[in-house]
C-alpha cells in the first residue's frame, strides 16, 4: 500500500533554492525544479529567512539541524487525568470535538486541562493494536460518505393536500431566538418497513423520539401527537416537515396540538438542517438496516436523553437540556412520557 512520507530538504536542495531565489525565480517555479510541493518550499523559506536578509542555504541548513536536536513537546494525552477523561467521554458518546470544547468550557483558565481535537484523534490512532484501541475507535462516529448531488426536478411522490409552504413560515423562526419551533422527520429502518419519529427544537436542539407503529400517515399522526402533547403549549408554535406522504394527516395534527405545520420545498433537506443533522447523530444508536419496531418508547427516551445531555458546539458546548433549563427555568419538557 502506498503511503505518503515527508523528507526534509537536503543541503543540495537548499543550495538550489538559494540560487534560484537570488536569480529572481518564484517559489512555485523552484518547487517544480525540486519536485516538491509549493507549500513545502514556501514553509522552508519562511522558516529560515532572517529578518532583512535573503534566504541562504548554509544558514537554513544550520537552523534545520538545530531544530532537529530539540526535543519535541510531549502530547498532553500522556497526562493520566486527561487520558481517563477522554476515554470516559468517548464511551459516553461524545466526539473528540465535543470533548475538547467541553474541557475549554469547564477549565477556561487551566491550559493543562485543555486539549485540541487533533490531539485527541492523534492519541487514539497511535494506540497499539488491541482491545483498548478497538473499543475507543469503535466509539467514534463513522465518517459520513460522500454526499450525492442534490436532486433536481419535480416531486414525484404526489401532493399532500392543503400544505403551507415554508416560505409562509414566520421570519423569526430562522433566527432561533424564540424556543418552540420544531423540525420533524421519520427515521426509517430496514427496507423502510419500520420507523422512529424524530423531533428537534430549533433553539435548544432538544430531541424527542416517538415510537411509530408503522410508516403510514395514521401512525405518524398518532406517534407525533402522543409525544408533542406533553410539550407545554408555549413551546410548540410551529413544526417544519418535509413532503413525505406520512404527513398527510398534518391538518389533524395541527388542530389537535394547536401548532402550525409548514412544509419544506421538494428535495431541500437543508431547509430542515437541524433535523437532518440530528438524524445523522441518531444513526449511532439506530443503525441503518435494522428493524426499528423493536425499540420501546422507554428505550427511545434513553437515546434521546443521551443526545440531550451531550455538549454541542453550536451551543458553545452546553447541552440541549442546559440551554432549555436556562430558557424555561423550572418548566421541563416531559421527556419520559
Secondary-structure map:
Elements: H1 11-22, H2 27-34, H3 38-48, H4 57-69, H5 80-91, H6 96-106, H7 117-125, H8 131-139, E1 181-188, E2 195-201, E3 207-211, H9 217-228, E4 238-241, H10 250-257, E5 260-263, H11 273-282, H12 297-308, H13 320-328
Parallel strand pairs: 1-4, 4-5
Antiparallel strand pairs: 1-2, 2-3
Helix pairs in contact: 1-4, 2-3, 3-4, 6-7, 9-10
Question: Could you walk me through the main structural features you see in this protein, from its secondary elements to its overall organization?
Answer:
The structure is a single chain. The protein has 337 residues and is of the alpha/beta class. It folds into three domains: 11-69; 76-138; 166-329, Nucleotidyltransferase, domain 5 (2-Layer Sandwich), CATH 3.30.420. It is 40% helix and 8% strand. The chain is built from 13 helices and five strands. The chain has helices spanning 11-22, 27-34, 38-48, 57-69, 80-91, 96-106, 117-125, 131-139, 217-228, 250-257, 273-282, 297-308, 320-328; strands at 181-188, 195-201, 207-211, 238-241, 260-263. The chain has a five-stranded mixed β-sheet, with helices on both faces. A hairpin with a 5-residue loop joins strand 2 (195-201) and strand 3. The longest helix has 13 residues, at 57-69. The model is unreliable at 143-156 and 330-337 (pLDDT under 50).
